[in-house]
Amino acid sequence: MTDTVPPQTTKKDWSSDQEVRWCPGCGDYSILTAVQMLMPDLGVDRENTVFISGIGCAARFPYYMNTYGVHGIHGRAPAIASGLAISRPELDVWVVTGDGDALSIGGNHLIHALRRNVNLTILLFNNQIYGLTKGQYSPTSEFGKVTKSTPFGSVDFPFNPVSLALGAEATFVARTHDMDRKHMMETFRRAHDHHGGAFVEIYQNCNVFNDGAFEAITSKEARPSMLIPLEHGKPIRFGPDLEQGVMLDGQGHAAIVDVAEVGDDRILVHDERRDDPGLAFVLSRLARGPLEPTPIGVFRAVDKPTYGDEMTRQLVEAQERQGPGDLAALLRSGATWDV
Amino acid sequence: MPDVDSLPDISVPFATELNHDGEFWPYLRDPETLARPWAVPGTPGLQHRVGGLEKEDGTGNVSYDPANHEKMTHVRAAKIAGIARDIPPVEVDHEDGADVLVLGWGSTYGAIGAAVRRVRARGKKVAQAHLVHLNPFPPNLGEVLGRYRRVLVPELNLGQLARLVRAEYLVDAKTLSKVQAQPFKAAEIEHAILELIDE
Ligand SMILES: Cc1ncc(C[n+]2csc(CCOP(=O)(O)OP(=O)(O)O)c2C)c(N)n1
Ligand code: SF4
Ligand SMILES: [Mg+2]
Predict the structure, then answer these.
(1) Min Cα separation B199/chain A (Å)
(2) Helix %, strand %, coil % for chain B, to 5?
(3) How many Å apart are CA B115 and CA B192, to the nearest integer?
(4) How many whole angstroms separate alpha carbon B113 and alpha carbon B186?
(5) Strands A227-230 and A244-248
């Protein structure tokens, strides 16, 4: 790693010359713009930045970044990225994935990468549908959803990606949405700066196969009363006049209350640094889907040793104890015989 | 066990320089092996993207051109086929007068060898060859197969190698199949060889 300050760059320096091929109006464009605008501010070099994806519309993302990139194997981006992040700790490794890619075929890879706290920044573009394959239901589609593959309505109960990540004890978990560039950029910056496995769910509109899935909470008019911003150290309040708040009831559930009715001091103060993910999980259950007031922002940000740091430490310690590796000695260290 | 110093150097020379008129083209190819240059993350100026969408020959740009896709498919097949140049020719344990070849691969080696010894102990002629490489096949395999009247392929499956050999070389190879999660017995292969010799 060098200590030199990366040269000043602009959004253009981070944009590749490849033609962006998403449907006109797709939410993926605004996420791409937010990432490309953020990169110059992160103090990193393009050659030390890698975007790794699986398969899907979202997964085309790496082609559009002027960085190293891998458009990888369906669901396996976290595995490819884990190997790279662990073996090359000086790199900045990002994963871009969709709700199908991350939670259907790649469900296992995702939870294990998070559980291991691999130093990755994982962006999950959640449009609650398989976009690329033209509109089948996904693991985040709501119960009853009629799609090409569920003509009579889905009978699956969906994953809540934030709950899932918290259940895997991810050390950084956040949610943002494609209609608010500033919020996306701030959330991505926090995720990037987190040392460890950072998970960001982005509500993303697929205007072709699932148009308006998040409109009830992300449209400009709806936001003040339907999005609950989580800010560390601040009471969780929302509404046009911050007249609503979140309170814990006696049963350990979070409930939305009228602040004037219950009093300021009963409103939950958000603490993203709590070691126990339980309360963050409770917050993630506040909305049953993006049709009710929904928390956005950082649910959890805690420090924990990363997989890569621990592995490097073990290697260094083993070499200090036993000296540098000697392949010839290793080969002859056990019983050998000729055939 | 080999002396470590005698092992060949298989380190990969990574790309570090622009390779085409002031640009880096990740899909330029070594004219002999057809391998692409390999620039790893961390190499300044060589940022590029690899992955499942078809790429334009040379530049590595994402390409939706049908003709380019067909060309690239041929290039990839030729790259794999070219590995045959680095594969040692298959060796045949031949006996003068043998017109039956037993072709095997993998863990059947011991049982095939025992069967061949038994046949020879009976005073009959048989040849044996064992494959280490299946794709591509060794460069001389077609010529070897052509030398024998009959080819027997014992396999612990339904005959996958035999199918490839038939498809690739138009040889009427005969399958001896066993799928019992048990190895071949030498006697089973011996019996099949004798049938072919006597047919
Ligand atoms: C092994 C494999 N299985 C299935 C598919 C088909 N497939 C392609 S993309 C996709 C899901 C895409 O959904 P999502 O991850 O939500 O991405 P989006 O297109 O919505 O951005 C599926 C099932 C595939 N390409 N490969
Ligand atoms: S199908 Fe949906 S997610 Fe895919 S590019 Fe089109 S609008 Fe975007
Ligand atoms: Mg999707």
Answers:
(1) 37
(2) 35, 15, 50
(3) 9
(4) 8
(5) unpaired
| A207 ligand 2 Cβ < 6 A | yes
- Find out whether the beta carbon of A57 lies less than 6 Å from any atom of ligand 2: yes
Tell me which residue of A65, A50, A213, A201 sits closest to A125, measured CA to CA: A201
- Looking from the CA of residue A57, the nearest atom of ligand 2 is 4
| Residue A3 confidence class, pLDDT cut points 50, 70, 90 | low
**Six-digit token string for B169:** 């070389």
A203 alpha-carbon distance from chain centroid: 11
- Supply the ipTM of this predicted assembly: 0.92
What is the helix (H) or strand (E) element at residue B169, kind and residue range? helix B160-169
Q: Which atom of ligand 2 is nearest to the CA of A208?
A: 7
Contacts of residue A242, Cβ cutoff 8 Å, sequence gap at least 6: A259
For residue range A180-195, list pLDDT tens digits in order. Answer: 999 999 999 999 999 9
> How far, in Å, from the CA of A155 to the mean position of ligand 1?
20
The amino acid at residue B119 is V
A214's tokens: 């998040």
How far, in Å, from the CA of A209 to the mean position of ligand 2?
Answer: 7
Q: What does residue A332 show for φ and ψ, rounded to 5 degrees?
A: -100, 15
Sheet holding B100-105, edge to edge: B92-93, B127-131, B100-105, B150-155, B174-177
